[in-house]
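Bit of a strange request maybe. I'm writing a small parser for structure token strings and I need a real example to test against, not something I typed by hand. Could someone generate the tokens for this chain?
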Amino acid sequence: MNPVKCPVHSSLALGASLKKNIVRYDDFKVYKIKIQSPEQYEEIRQLESKYNLNFWNEVRRLEDDFDIMVPPLMQEKFENYMLAKNYSYGVKIKNVQSLIDAGIPSQRSSRMDWKQYNTLDEINIWLDEIADRYPDIITPFSIGNSHEGRKIKGIKISYKPGNKAIFIESTIHAREWITSAAITYVIDELLVSRNPAVRDIAENLDWYIIPVLNVDGFVYSHEVNRMWRKSRLLSDPAGTCYGTDLNRNFDFLWMSVGASDNPCSETYAGPYAESDVEIKQMLQYINTSIPEDTIRIYISLHSYGQYVLSPWGHTEDFPEHYPEMMHVAKGYADALYRRFNTVFTYGSSSTTLYKVSGSGKEWAYGVKGIPIPYTIELRDKSEYGFLLPPEYIIPVGSEVLDGFVGMVDAAREVNVI
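Reply from user aminoacidic:
Good idea to test on real output. This should exercise your parser:
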């Protein structure tokens, strides 16, 4: 391992220890930084390798905190830099490992349970079980195998022919565990809920859902490194860095903005568009297995920050369907708010602060012509970040389902569905 070239691996050399191959984050801190301009944001991002920083979020608005994890041996240097540059900063999480430990139950069920974060095997077994239980409603599918040979499973929920569809890919970033937990909760509700509004969206739309797209990274985040984000494809010829940011690997304006060509960066877009089989195979599935113009809403489910983000990501110009996108996003945010007063912000990615290209929602709109494409960032606003405690799973899943009801209602109002 090379502690200079690769931020993720270098964190081991700079304070995290290994125990039974488990990466630990003892005394790693998460700092909150106030950003005053896009230039400051880019300046700090350039420090990734120098201080072995791990960026937890992408700043969407100037009033948001920029959350950055720093290893123990770099904290004094990082703080000195912040002071020298007159940045406003503070410590948000004093010990990352303490939150990781708190999220591991003393006793866990080996079956699907929304009181715990489930493993890939548990999710896949459950997907097989519900497919057997509801053979007339669920059509299981696989987009293919991952780089490490794992099957990438999805299901189609369809109560009748002729429906328009919603396509959802979840857990493209491995450490965002709440996404697979919330979407499997939604799947269960689409099958068993007696709520008339839920029955409406379940039965009058088809749902294509991949609960875990980044299967290799997800397993790695469970078994080795809880904070792993990317895929597991070797990305550095020297053999020191692994993984592509799969949400920068789509073939639409690939690598034009908001992505890195450094194989060791957390936002490494890969050597070329669709270089990773996970993305290439998913797009092939959409193009060859789903009839044209069937998918009306595309959702890339992420955490955290509480956002509904539409195109464009690469420019502040608005796309043709932007008014419809905002109407439907408002429907989602308003419906979700009613249960727990959780506030979601909506708008295009680039009209906040952060620009991005090569992401799922950009491809869905720019290439496939899907009229309503979103990146949805689930809870929270950064108190726990990626380490949301398991007791939040059911509340988050419940409000996401509420949001989908509001989203579909709003989409009908503008004749998208």
